[in-house]
Amino acid sequence: MVKLRLKxxxxxxxxxxxxxxxxxxxxxxxxxxxxxxFYNPRTDEVRLNVPAIVxxxxxxxxxxxxxxxxxxxxxxxxxxxx
Length: 82
Known about the structure:
The chain is an alpha+beta fold. The chain contains 3 helices and 5 strands; from the N terminus they run E-E-E-E-H-E-H-H. The chain has one domain: CATH 3.30.1320.10. It is 27% helix and 40% strand. A 5-stranded mixed beta sheet has the order 4-3-2-1-5. The two termini are 18 Å apart. InterPro entries: Ribosomal_bS16, Ribosomal_bS16_CS, Ribosomal_bS16_dom_sf.
């Protein structure tokens, strides 16, 4: 199964995340199928590739709870109808 989840990167205590499509059994920082966005929790900066995210969701990818809340705040889930 394909999941939309966060991939951690950055220095210690200066973390930021990439939103990626990845196989559910892969490790957290493993090679993703596709990078779909960026999230910085320290500044609440979010950049999303909305067409690619909508395409992945329509193909059946399941977002984690954290990614789901980010997508809900950006009104992306309404475009899919989920």
